[in-house]
Design brief:
The chain has 335 residues and is mostly helical. The protein has 15 helices and no strands. Helices cover 65% and strands 0% of the residues.
């Protein structure tokens, strides 16, 4: 765990570590702000958006691990949320933000799909130009080395075949099961992973058709309805998924609050919350892969509630917060 004040007076390396730690906390605040803003875009009342995001992040293993490991998850998710939030207002900023997110981690590249589906040529051109511009800037400063390092790391991850209890990717699950039978699971990874990804992509298409999150028939509606389920594809497609990567499922997790109706759905939701965001890290096969199970439960709920309207309690609470009790005139009294 990083010690926030350890860097004071310990030289250049300590100062650099302190700056990065501070940068991570700035990213946390930025992520919170953008998460609440995009929740409001999806129909959350301002107060509900702030309260739900705050309490969700207050006790959260993914948030804690991102801070401890000084990861770029907050910054990457902030760029993703900003890209989709600003899309209807400024396509250049939207495309540039997602291009920058792709340069932090390659997995957000999958989020281009809804823009392709919407056939937004102007956005796609801006995205391509932004990608080239960021690549050129990086190349001029650092040369080819960062990209060569990325390709080498990707190759090493794909061909790894060790004991990775805390890696919750599909790749790790297949390899661990194969190791249990004393065989190499690498050749089997895509035989399992490809059908899963096809099913997830079907879920994205289903969400676009049903419009569960945003009742719009234009390009903005397609993009916003695709994002929550597409985040699952981004996580499941990755060859390496640590506990802090499940921060990427924050948006669909919170959006489900306004849709669930039955007791069974709330029970599944509670188990998903427990498995993904509350369980500590432990090395005990197969239970160490509980986060992957929780993500599967969340995706199932996103598909199941796709045809639901907003629940009565959510609509009623939104109306009450729009007209708080204290703002009403007091009842008349005699005498």
């Amino acid at each position: 765990m990083c010690q926030p004040f350890l860097w004071l007076g310990v030289g250049e390396k300590g100062l650099t570590a302190g700056i990065w730690f501070l940068n991570c906390w700035v990213g946390l605040v930025l992520f919170f702000v953008l998460l609440t803003r995009i929740l409001q875009t999806y129909g959350f009342d301002r107060n509900i958006a702030h309260y739900s995001a705050f309490f969700f992040m207050l006790v959260n293993v993914a948030v804690l691990r991102t801070l401890c490991y000084v990861q770029v998850n907050f910054h990457m998710m902030s760029l993703i949320l900003f890209s989709f939030f600003i899309y209807s207002r400024n396509k250049l900023l939207s495309a540039a933000a997602l291009a920058l997110a792709v340069h932090l981690k390659a997995s957000p590249l999958i989020l281009v799909l809804p823009f392709l589906y919407a056939r937004d040529i102007k956005w796609l051109i801006r995205f391509a130009v932004s990608m080239v511009a960021i690549f050129a800037m990086t190349y001029c400063i650092y040369g080819w080395a960062p990209y060569a390092s990325f390709l080498e790391n990707t190759k090493n991850i794909y061909y790894a075949n060790g004991l990775l209890f805390r890696d919750c990717s599909i790749d790790a699950v297949v390899r661990m099961v194969a190791i249990s039978f004393r065989t190499n699971g690498t050749p089997w990874v895509w035989l399992v992973k490809l059908p899963v990804l096809v099913g997830l992509l079907w879920g994205v298409y289903y969400a676009i058709q049903q419009k569960p999150w945003k009742h719009r028939k234009d390009a903005l509606g397609s993009v916003l309805n695709a994002l929550p389920t597409l985040l699952f594809v981004m996580v499941f497609a990755s060859p390496l998924v640590w506990e802090h990567h499940f921060l990427f499922l924050s948006l669909p997790f919170l959006l489900l609050l306004k849709k669930m109706q039955t007791t069974a759905e709330w029970v599944l939701y509670g188990f998903a919350y427990l498995f993904i965001f509350l369980f500590p890290e432990f090395d005990f096969f197969p239970f160490s892969f509980c986060r992957l199970i929780g993500a599967g439960l969340l995706f199932y709920l996103c598909i199941k509630v796709a045809k639901y309207n907003n629940t009565h309690w959510f609509t009623s609470l939104s109306q009450r917060l729009e007209h708080p009790i204290l703002s009403r005139s007091p009842p008349c009294s005699n005498g």
